Amino acid sequence: MPTPALPITPALAERLSGSPLVLLLDLDGTLSPIAPRPEDAVVPPATRRVLEHLARARDVQVVAISGRSAQDARRLLSLDDVWIIGNHGIEVVRPTGAALVRPDVARFSEKIAAASARIARLARTHAGVIAEDKRWTLSVHYRLADPSIVPELRDLVDAVAADLGLRVTHGKEVLELRPPIDIDKGTAAVEVAGDLGALRPEASLLCAGDDRTDEDMFRSLRRAAPRSVTVCVVEGTISRETAAEFSVPDTSAMRALLEAILALRHSGAPVR
Q1: What integer pLDDT is reported at residue 223 of this predicted model?
Q2: Helix 251-267 and helix 45-56: axis angle, to 10°?
Q3: Cα separation, 209 vs 27, whole angstroms
Q4: Using CB atoms within 10 A of its CB, is residue 92 exposed (0-12), middle (13-18) or buried (19+)?
Q5: Residue 53 falls within a domain, yes or no?
Q6: What is the arrangement of strands in the sheet containing 246-248, beginning at the earlier edge strand?
Q7: Same domain for 193 and 207?
Q8: What DSSP element (H or E) covers 261?
Q9: Active site residue 80
Q10: DSSP H/E element including 64
């Protein structure tokens, strides 16, 4: 097993030894390396294996939390026994069951569809721009576009959102159009953590992410459960401010940390 970039000290081991242990894990950039196109992303087999073992471990719950649709997140992860939070918190799927969407979000489906049609036309006239329709939200990726078009692209997306009464948020080379509802990864993470018993004093909670939208999760969970372990994956970033308590350099180091946590849960002792 590789040595994790974040060593599990005795103090950290104690914080991760509670019951239950709930792992809230972003997908792209945290479990899966960032890909030029969303459909090209892959969770490495070694990462999938350790997640499968964790999901089956006693008193451990694995929750994947993603900006992708819940269906697409499930496809990317390809694991049973895992909760899925999709669309930045708008969809929640239990290990067995259909996606649940709040009624106040569902009423914006026609506006999201209208935005999708307009953004698709915009993408066709701007090389390298990819429109990803996730039914309840819409992502506009510009990782492959010429950087010089980004200011114009932001203005155009802002105009579509304003016209339809939607909200725009920013991520790693992506713009997100969402319903103007106060739901994000933070609110969803706290709600699911509470449902799983992770906010109780005897429980343990770890969340990991890499993007701006994951900062909502870090802040909200540290308020709701001050002993929670928050980890930012900072691949390709020399320095970046984050609300997370810890950081690891890349997705491989994140996998090594998960492997160390699995060993800790099996042995009941800190991994040295």
Answers
A1: 94
A2: 30
A3: 8
A4: buried
A5: yes
A6: 100-101, 91-93, 82-86, 60-65, 21-26, 204-209, 229-233, 246-248
A7: yes
A8: helix 251-267
A9: no
A10: strand 60-65
Choosing from 26, 28, 211, 216, the catalytic residue is 26
3-state secondary structure of 17: coil
Q: Hey, which residues does 246 pair with through a beta bridge?
A: 231
Question: Per the structure block, which two tokens stand in for 187?
Answer: 């609110």
Distance from C-alpha of 143 to C-alpha of 140, rounded to nearest angstrom: 10
User: Are 36 and 166 members of one domain?
Assistant: no
Q: Are 210 and 87 part of one and the same domain? A: yes
Which residue is it, tokens 């060993």? 263
Q: Which conformational region is residue 268 in: left (phi greater than 0), alpha (psi within -120 to 50 degrees), or beta? A: left
Q: How many CA atoms lie within 13 A of 65 on its CB side?
A: 33
Three-point CA angle 103, 105, 109, nearest 5°? 105
What's the number of domains the chain is made of?
Answer: 2
Answer yes or no: are the C-beta atoms of 119 and 131 closer than 8 Å: yes
Residue 238: its pLDDT value, please? 47
Q: Are residues 168 and 195 in the same domain?
A: no
Predicted pLDDT of residue 213: 87
Residue-level pLDDT at 2: 62
Tokens standing for residue 59? 């008193």
| Signed CA dihedral, 41, 244, 46, 59: sign only | negative
Domain ranges, residue 157: 104-178
Q: What is the pLDDT of residue 174?
A: 92
With a cut of 70, list the residues of the chain below it in pLDDT.
1-3, 236-239, 268-272
Distance CA 24, CA 4 (A): 18
Specify the pLDDT at position 268. 56
The predicted pLDDT at position 1 comes to 58
Which two three-digit tokens encode residue 242? Answer: 């984050």
Look at the pTM and tell me if it is higher than 0.70.
yes
Q: Is residue 161 part of a domain?
A: yes
Q: Residue 1 falls within a domain, yes or no?
A: no
How many other CB atoms sit within 10 Å of the CB of residue 54? Answer: 22
